[in-house]
Design a protein that fits this description.
The complex is a heterodimer. Chain A is of the alpha/beta class. Helices cover 26% and strands 29% of the residues of chain A. Chain A has two domains: 159 residues, 3-Layer(aba) Sandwich (Rossmann fold); 120 residues, 3-Layer(aba) Sandwich (Rossmann fold). Chain B is of the alpha/beta class. A nine-stranded mixed sheet of chain B has the order 9-8-7-10-6-1-4-5-11, with helices on both faces. A two-stranded antiparallel sheet of chain B has the order 2-3. The termini of chain B are far apart. The chains are: A alpha/beta, B alpha/beta.
Chain lengths: 305, 256
Amino acid sequence: MKLLLVGEYREGKLQGSVNDLMAFAQKMGAESAMFLVGTEGDVPKYAGTLYLADVKKCGEYNPAVHKELLLSAVAQAKADMVVFSHSSYGWDLAPRVAYALKASQVSEVVDVVDGMPVAPVCNSKLRRTVQPKTAVTVLTLQGGAFNLDGEPSGTPVIEKIETAAASALVFGGYEQAEQGGVDLAKAQVIVSAGRGIGKPENIAIIAGLAKALKGEYGASRPVVDAEWADHNRQVGTTGQTVSPKLYVACGISGAIQHLAGMKKSEFVVAINTDKDAPIGEVADVLVVADLKVFVPLLTDKINAL
Amino acid sequence: MNILVCIKQVPDMESKFKVGGDGLWYDSADLAWRMNEYDEYAVEQAVQLKEKTGADLTVLCIGPERVKETMKKALAMGCDRGVHVADDASYRKDPFSIASIIAEFARSKNFDLIFTGMQSQDRGSAQVGVLAAEMLGLPSITTIVGFSFEEGKITVKRELEGGVKAKVTSPVPALVTCQLGLNTPRYPTLPNIMKAKKKELVSVAVSELLKSEAVQETKAVYFPEKKGGGLVLEGDAGDLADRLIKILKEKTAVLA
């Protein structure tokens, strides 16, 4: 088996998700090569061949062109498995490449069991193993599902690739997130503040931890009613229903209306001085502590990782 | 203008799922069915475009008889006609087969725009729209959270990670896949629900449209390992933080 790992480059930077791809190759124990539309000055630490196209010529977002480049790399590398991240770049490009290669694609792979990719069903409530029936397969990997053992190392051997292909699409630039336009439903990590924060100034503590975890901060109804947080951050039946990978409930007792809004979270940490707070019933981990002391400490330690 | 919107009927994700008898999908008994959430945004955007341009709007759905209920909602939201691809075994079809059915249906119809959800809530492959566009030789843009149509071109915003959006312009015909938050899907009004009952809703046998073989098969569907019982951590705050970080590294991907 020979893997071709598809790296990503956005807003002038190589994306860190490339490590997940290398971790997957490591897990598979398979030979690999890498593909990137990027620049020679910003390549991953990788001991293998890197098929590199110039992002200045090909553009960061240009699927028809990237597809042709990738097909050329697949042919040169004689790859029989093309591996993407399940990201806005990966899920966009992968089916185009799969179709051109007459390959079967399995999306958002979280594991490999008996050589078969495993994918989530119904928001990860179920899982399924999939048997591709084609000579070449295409996978997109769920972010964080595969972790590299050790640090990436090596210097890639660069093979430059080009294409004359053109695209019907015209990329018109990036638009950064609007201030305050928070959409908790899509956040992977939510750190929520409850009545236990005590005073509005302590929202900053909660927001600090959310930032350290690259997530959003939310709030329970009492915090919103008190106007310590905007309504668009409210989690619960009258606010938003969320299902992040990690939900951290700080000073939230766990009223049923709140639990209804966050019980689908994959992993729940509760921080509460009350060991018997109902939030403990849905929490994977209950930290019995004063959030005003514990949360800043935790934030500092995470930032130092 | 001629528009197609493709929708899927899915169970309410709050449902208590069971593995079905054949072990290849969830059991379809005792579930509440609804329109795939992403597709509601696709229907709304298509209806808004129809209202602006006077376009003709067809909604397509593949599945057993019960999916007609979901199609009626799309008709009540403003689609002009429904095409139901009757297939009791649609749950076993891979994304390639589903896309093949859509492409075969759309091939000779000269649609200017095709709207789909960016993925389904149950299978979540995020492949069908793009595959169908590739099969039809159309440009496609995925994960849109903004849409406008001016002078024969569409300008959309793609949602990227971290709240960043990419602006993209494409000529039509084209296909777009819709992300949550693209618009505010309307609730069908009672008069529109009544009107929808009179709209054309035809059924086509899947065998008339499916001309290709599946490229993959599901071997087994099962529940992931259960969460461990809630762990209670007590003690010195600094020590607690270290222990919690260790747990987050082991149990979640958020510190990766």
